[in-house]
Automatic annotation (TrEMBL):
Gene3D superfamilies recorded: Type I PLP-dependent aspartate aminotransferase-like (Major domain) (3.40.640.10)
The protein's name in its UniProt record: Aminotransferase
Origin organism lineage: Bacteria, Pseudomonadati, Pseudomonadota, Alphaproteobacteria, Rhodobacterales
Biological process terms in GO annotation: amino acid metabolic process
PANTHER family associated with the record: ASPARTATE AMINOTRANSFERASE (PTHR46383:SF1)
CDD domains (UniProt xref): AAT_like
Annotated Aminotransferase class I/classII large domain residues: 34-381
């Protein structure tokens, strides 16, 4: 019996680079005390009021099939939220509700790419990006960015890889780097997409976690709404990772295509989860700010703990729940450093190599431990790095 070739095509024939995470998980299961700073799982749990709204919806009978694109009240609420944030007129028919942001990414690429096309994505990247593109049968091509430019994409790098491309996937505020693409960067990206007639897929799941400057959605730039698809999610903004609920905002033909795909794959999102999301969104900006506040505070803890180290260079963290640090001064690769840090100090961080070649020699630190434990882990990480540097 043979497994379909598309599965090996998705992986690209290489490991996923998450060896440190798997090792840390095994150590924790064996009873070891590990400071786990690997994955972006908020240590904040879903607010009890949201869970009560979910339970009430289920108890009232909203447990049957739902319409593929999502319930109209939730789609209207998402459309209003996006319009208020961007100033771009947004109809509820531009919105499709999906089982999380990852399902949204998959559906959009399936709707926009054919086998043999090229799908671009910026590196460093969230690890599922290339596999999501390859799942369509297309070729995934990375657009590199540079550590010494705070990992801001450049139009020339996009143009150099645009032959045969139909889509470009970006993420700001960014996982894994913690940077926010500047207004100039977003304008350059938009211009390159217009010049090369690319769909621009903008993953904005961290748009409530902005510490410096401002988040600029490319959909808000003149003439871009017709070629931009925005990915959103409740996972980070409302600590609802396990509820698996996200969305796309797109021109209506794209939304309709994604709805067709939903009908033939997920068959929609549970109605009681959609009702909980509607309740959560209606709690407003103050609620979202309270969810984001610990990560802002911990960003400052990292800046104090690592900011002036001779062995660790901090990439200025501007948003999201991560920071990225350059540890090349230690003489080790990111992978070597991370594995040794785990075995010797019981601290788990993600090696930059997990996120693509531009992040080699770096580490991603997730801000998902309570403040005191994070501060203690950073002090040990700094001491470990400085001892290596000598």
């Amino acid at each position: 019996m043979k497994i379909a070739d598309r599965i090996s095509h998705i992986t690209g024939g290489s490991a996923d680079g998450w060896g440190v995470y798997y090792r840390a998980r095994d150590l924790i299961a064996a009873g070891e005390r590990v400071a786990n700073l690997t994955i972006g799982e908020p240590d904040i749990k879903t607010d009890p009021a949201i869970l009560e709204a979910m339970a009430a919806s289920a108890a009232s009978g909203n447990t049957g099939y739902t319409v593929g694109p999502g319930q109209e009240p939730l789609r209207r609420e998402i459309a209003a939220r996006v319009q208020a944030r961007t100033g771009v007129p947004t109809n509820w028919r531009n919105v499709v509700v999906t089982p999380g942001g990852q399902a949204a990414l998959f559906a959009v690429h399936m709707a926009l790419l054919d086998a043999g096309d090229v799908g671009l994505y910026c590196a460093p990247f969230y690890p599922t990006y290339p596999g999501t593109i390859r799942a369509t049968g297309a070729k995934a091509v990375a657009v590199p960015t540079r550590s010494d430019r705070a990992f801001q994409p450049e139009a020339a790098e996009i143009e150099a890889r645009a032959a045969g491309a139909r889509t470009l996937l970006i993420n700001t505020p960014n996982n894994p780097t913690g940077v926010i693409y500047s207004t100039d960067t977003v304008a350059q990206i938009a211009a390159a997409c217009v010049a090369r007639d690319l769909w621009l897929i903008s993953d904005e799941v961290y748009d409530t976690q902005v510490w410096n400057g401002a988040h600029v959605s490319p959909r808000a730039l003149p003439g871009m709404a017709e070629r931009v698809v925005v990915i959103g999610s409740m996972s980070k903004s409302h600590a609802m990772t396990g509820s698996r609920i996200g969305w796309i905002v797109a021109p209506e033909p794209v939304a309709e295509a994604v709805a067709v795909l939903a009908t033939n794959t997920t068959y929609g999102v549970s109605g009681f989860v959609q009702d909980a999301a509607l309740f959560a969104l209606r709690q407003g900006a103050a609620f979202e700010a309270a969810i984001a506040a610990p990560f802002h505070r911990r960003r400052d803890i990292v800046a104090r703990g690592l900011g002036n180290s001779p062995a660790v260079r901090l990439i200025p963290p501007e948003g999201a729940m991560y920071v990225m640090v350059d540890i090349r001064a230690t003489g080790l690769s990111g992978a070597e450093f991370a594995h040794r840090l785990l075995e010797q100090e019981q601290i788990a961080v993600m090696p930059g190599e997990s996120f693509g070649a531009p992040a080699a020699g770096h580490l991603r630190i997730a801000l998902t431990l309570e403040d005191g434990a994070l501060e203690a882990a950073l002090a040990r990480l700094r001491g470990f790095a400085e001892a290596l540097r000598g």
